[in-house]
Design goal:
Layout lengths: L7 H21 L10 H13 L4 H18 L3 H25 L11 H92 L1
Length: about 200
């Protein structure tokens, strides 16, 4: 029977065999570590394990692995690089010792785990610095644009009263221009009245 004729259920069983073999190899490559936990920590560990249907040892192992990466990231860069190199060297010896205790000869071990973690941490730190600098530049741009906007507002506010004053002066100017014509009219009326009075006076004589 060719691979193309293999039913899906057969390939599923093959995958189960592979997963079982990988799990067995992983278990044989692990060292035992006895921990004494506080009642509060042990209670929460049990709650999480039951909630997600996992063993307490499995959850504790993953929590410890994640916590070690967090602790490692807080070490100063120069010391962290040296520590990663020493940890990777020590890990190879520990893995060989565990494999020998479990009767495994020539166990496969991928070294350089902590060196890779150190490189990932450096990349993350550079990304944070870049984002921080970009945020600072954006803030500086906003601060520089605010005084320009303030000056524009001040110019608008100072120019507005001038327009009002001009609008007030125009009626005054037109009134002044109209004043001589009104004054001449009044003088002519007064002259006509005097002339009429003189005529009446001469007529009565």
């Amino acid at each position: 029977m060719s691979a193309a004729d293999t039913p899906n259920t057969h390939s599923l069983i093959d995958r189960y065999y592979d997963e079982e073999r990988e799990l067995r190899e992983k278990e044989l490559s692990l060292a035992e570590l006895t921990l004494r936990l506080d009642a509060n920590d042990l209670a929460l560990l049990g709650m999480i394990s039951r909630r997600f249907r996992k063993g307490r040892e499995e959850v504790a192992q993953e929590v410890l692995s994640s916590a070690l990466v967090d602790l490692f990231s807080r070490i100063e860069p120069g010391e962290r690089k040296l520590m990663a190199r020493d940890a990777d060297d020590a890990a190879k010896g520990i893995a060989d010792s565990i494999a020998e205790d479990n009767g495994i000869m020539n166990a496969e071990f991928r070294s350089g785990y902590w060196a890779q973690q150190e490189r990932n941490i450096v990349k993350a730190e550079k990304a944070r610095e870049k984002a921080l600098k970009a945020a600072e530049k954006e803030q500086e741009k906003q601060q520089m644009s605010q005084p320009a906007q303030t000056e524009e507002k001040m110019v608008e506010e100072t120019s507005t009263p001038d327009l009002e004053e001009e609008s007030v002066h125009y009626p005054e100017a037109s009134a002044i221009e109209k004043a001589p014509a009104a004054l001449e009219t009044q003088v002519e009326a007064a002259n006509e009245q005097e002339a009429a009075e003189e005529e009446r006076a001469s007529a009565s004589e």
